[in-house]
Amino acid sequence: MGIMASWIRNTTIERNEISDAPYMGIQVGNQSDIKSPNKTAGYNTVRNNKINNVMKLLDDGGGIYTLARQIGTQVTGNYISNIMRGKWAMDAPIAAIYHDSCSEYISVENNVLQQVANDLFYQESTNCKVKNITQLNNTDFSEHIQNQSGRTEKYSEPLKREAEKAKLKGYKIERSQDKYSNGEGIATEKAGSASVIFNKDTGSFYIRIAYLAENKGQSQFKLYINNVLLESWTASRPAEGLADEFKSFTTSSITLHRNDVIKVVGIAKGKAQARLDYIEIFN
Ligand SMILES: [Ca+2]
């Protein structure tokens, strides 16, 4: 196994290169207490990793493997290739991305799955089925995603700014273990803004805004850099069975300069309160 991450929360696994391994590339999540499944893993990010030629000996696994409910978990930008059944494998499945028992509330977006025995596998044969997995734009070729995965000399640690620690206008700090990855975020009944200062050297970065999809309405969000509008989006709807669901919006790559002001404006809709959790800047 390349990376094994069991009962973890708020953990990012990114820009690794894992190859030629007898078993899996990355496992995120592990068996949870079925009576309180939200109390174990959640809010994890598996991003821009390069995984090649794993599962060489064993079966019942994959390039990236998830287990148990983990609200707010995102698997994105990974380049997974050559996941084929080895000659010692038995009858269990092998897949580029393998969702095992109870995997739930995970988004799987913009991954490249190339030369694989199966692309995505969902465990259906146990009494705790996989459900509420969002799948978007997974493909077998993307020059951009392939180039963006694995190690890079330009790598810098993501900058994560909690919304509740930003400069706020019209927003109030709210404490809720159910709503926010770290138990704290911000909410507004009308409209508000949260601003942070970018404090790294000039470079190309992505900005990811973690917000709450609320079933009471679809709030609007706008992202400004130095008061110039860059993006606007509407909150998505939470998955079935959830009152709210952690979601995120990621920009395309943009140039940021030291002391740029990154401002997110939220406009409440109905009884939804344009809730924000954090702003993350990564390259
Ligand atoms: Ca927060």
Automatic annotation (TrEMBL):
Q: Which CDD domains match?
A: CBM6-CBM35-CBM36_like
Q: What is this protein called?
A: Right-handed parallel beta-helix repeat-containing protein
Record the organism: Paenibacillus hexagrammi
The record's PANTHER family line, in alphabetical order, gives: RIGHT HANDED BETA HELIX DOMAIN-CONTAINING PROTEIN (PTHR36453:SF1), SECRETED PROTEIN-RELATED (PTHR36453)
Q: Which domain of life is it from?
A: Bacteria
Q: What is the phylogenetic placement of the source species in the record?
A: Bacteria, Bacillati, Bacillota, Bacilli, Bacillales
